[in-house]
Amino acid sequence: MNNLSETRLPTIEERLALLTKWKGAHRFDKDVLSAKVPEGSYIGNETASSDNIRRWATAMGDLNSRHLVPDYAAKTRYGRLVAPPLFLQSICFVGAGMLETEIEGARGFHSGSDWNFYKPVLEGDVIDFDGFTVIDVKAVRSEFSSEMIVITGACQYRNQIKDTVGLVKGFVHSSAGDASARATGKYQQIAKPYRYTEEELRKIEEDKDKEKMRGSEPRYWEEVAEGDSIGHLVIGPHTIMDTIAHIAGTQGCFALAGTGSRLTRTWIKNMLLKGSKNGPEIWDARINAFVNGELAHLDYDLGRATGAPGAYDTGAERECLGSVLLTNWMGDDGFLWRYSVRFVRFVVHGDTNWFRGRIAKKYIDDGKCCVDMDLWADNQRNDKTVLGSATVILPSKEHGPVVYPHPRTIEDIMSKD
Fold this sequence. Notes:
By secondary structure, this protein is α+β, with helices and mostly antiparallel strands. It is built from 14 helices and twelve strands. The chain has a single domain (4-416), classed as Hotdog Thioesterase (Thiol Ester Dehydrase, Chain A). Strand 7 (281-284) and strand 8 (289-292) form a beta hairpin. Helix 3 runs antiparallel to helix 10 (240-251). The protein starts with 11 loop residues before the first helix and ends with a helix.
């Protein structure tokens, strides 16, 4: 077995040409992804059971009672437990489809998502999905890896009565190779974990105590104004246990299985493209062998091997955590329609993030009482780690309960976006 440093890697141009052939050409669904693993071992959820909803919510720290307490949920407009919006990520993470595009030496980093939600997912719902591995691909300049390829995929979700409940576009930045990312040294200055003062730790706890959860008290559209803050949510200091909690809450720890396990070996073999020997793995020089690439999120040395400043969180984890600020703010009667995030800096061991938002616009759209907001997250170094936006539909004293949006489809995205 040879280290990839001893192998000629495809150029950006060669990779771009290969990926362009995939654009709009490969559709995936549960049957396609299930065929990559041993029978019966598909990694995602299928049913929004009370157990699956609770596991997601507790893993992400979304402690709104409408997700967790059946007696409480029975008194809400839903009449039963309702799943958090990003629960759909546990049905199928769009990046799972993108793994089919792994090319020798490439390293993919989930860099953002555009979510649209159309109806709530309720306890007992059975969710199916399908999507395109690649709907767009382009090369961009990068301070991290000199040049990267941005791959966009998409997935849509339907419940058991075929209603579309959600749609997501996911973005992955694929590096020119681990060696290229290491050579730039962009994150060298934060390679050592941040060391807090007692005062800084006290401030973190004080800010956590100031977080607010709207709950059963309706937040009416008439009561909010452009320029209002939506509060904050403090996440951290980050450790690998936060990443493990996310994976356990969404994938049942499948992603962490060792490359020697029968499950992972089957998955890796079936993911390989022609000309690729190692698939989604990472070279561990300490043992002279390839290991599961997800370990870069948990192991300092393997994280550094990718060019990151150490073990880093997952984008999927960060977008779920950030969504809790919105579910806290909107209350039981609000509905998250659109949620877009971009990850602009790594979050590594010891980092703390303050997720914040501010109302940018309020308006009525075809009966929907909408609030657009700008979102961001700052870490303890005052670096921006997330930029985003969201649209929440609120109940109205004048116009009544929330009106759900008309769903779009992947075909709609392909033809108009």
